[in-house]
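In response to reviewer comment 3 from the previous cycle, which asked for concrete evidence that the modeling workflow produces usable outputs, we include below a single protein chain processed end to end. The sequence was submitted unchanged, and the resulting structure tokens are shown without manual editing.
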Amino acid sequence: MFMRPSTDIELIQERQQSISVLLRPDNGADIDNIGKLLRKIKNIKHNLLQLRKGISLPSGRVSIERGTWASLQAFCAFTAEIREAVQRLHGAEDLSIMARIVHGIRQSDLLPVGELITGTIDFQQSKEARRTCVMQGVSAELDELKRNYDGLEYFLNQVAALMIEEIPEWAQQYVKNCIFYPQIGFLTVVSLNPESGRGNYEGEGLSDDVWERMFVSDGNIYYKNRRMKELDGQYGDLYCMIVDKEIEIIHELRVRTLEHEEALIEASDLCGELDSLIALALGADKYKMTAPQLTSTNIIQIQGGRHPLQELVVPSFIANDTLLLGGSGDGTADETIVSDLMGEVPSMLVMTGPNHSGKSVYLKQVALIVYLAHIGSYVPADQACVGLTDRLLTRIATRESVSRNESAFAIDLKQAAFSINFATRRSLILVDEFGKGTNAMDGAGLLSALLDHFLNLGEDAPRVLAATHFHEIFENKLLPNTPKLSFAHMDVRVDLETEIEGDTELLRLS
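The workflow returned the following structure tokens.
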């Protein structure tokens, strides 16, 4: 939604209606509940992609509770609750988003997935083992393997006791116990003789038994002998057998989950859209925004417009108006809105004023209002009528880098050329301090030529906002005298009686 503003008036109006319903006082408790549920789920497209790759464990230090299976389990459970909560909203019966949520979040797809995961994955054991473990009761074969593995300690104590009875009495004190290592198998542990570097006992006195030294660790030597090899043949590598069986079960679970992939993605997209609308509604309520009127007339009419971010960091913000009318293409206005306006409406506004007087903030403020209107949001203004806009073209910021073999002035020229080549009558063009990268007369000439080009487009003229310090443009009358061009400046109050030097910027457009 935020990445792709729309020019579909019906879609934009539908989002505005959804926001108005979400702002109803009698829906406050339900919206809070839905918000809490949305915070508990994730965008599961990434999790489904991980499943396709065969990855179910979280990477790095992320806990198992935030892994793929836990996220999918939570998504299935909480999404069903979101669907029920949406149905309780007052006045939402006719909203498209609500109908799509009710029909698009299908419990027949989500509940089986959630039950499969809950009945298969043992999250507590997975957390302790740092791998995906399977619940008891899923596979009789796996349960038997786990019982044998869990009973190894008692079993190996018995094996060690029997072995000690078979070896010579003098060597019994050196055989400590028997142990099992995954992939290595069963081993006999014998104390190390520090003088010889060998075990204190290596099978002496036993016929047909070779004690093969495997490795040394912590003052002990680990041997593979006939009895240990018999245990390897009888029980195998229990741990690896358990892991292999669990991998097989998890793979089957993954295949069955991916059968519902389309339904899960649809539900995720709907939850994301609902989350965006709730965020817009909460922002509209908190920052006193109003619903703009979207029209096919190529106009921008804003009363009491504010910059939604700048007003948060200043003690008081001065609201400003905007009125621009671009070309109509065929020479006639699209609607009757223009007839309600007094006199000629300009397509271009050129403003000047001292530094820090609010020129750049004003340009960005208008662009943000136009952008917010096209995603269906309320806007920070007392009233706004915004014509459909296809592009926001700017010459505001110059990003220099040592990796680019270009000067700041060359970058500015490229941005201006891009605006010239791709502007349409429905574009909004912002120009801030263009031409300052060269001498004053050349810069003033370049800016005048750029603005004159847009003015001469006639009925294909875009809406243009420009800010400049080039007073040569006004003194030498470099721009034509036309009703389509208006001038403005930021008010400054000069108080000659105060002892403090300097002027006071009022941040008001005049």
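The first strand starts at residue 175 and ends at 181. We consider this sufficient to address the reviewer's concern, and the full set will be provided in the supplementary archive.
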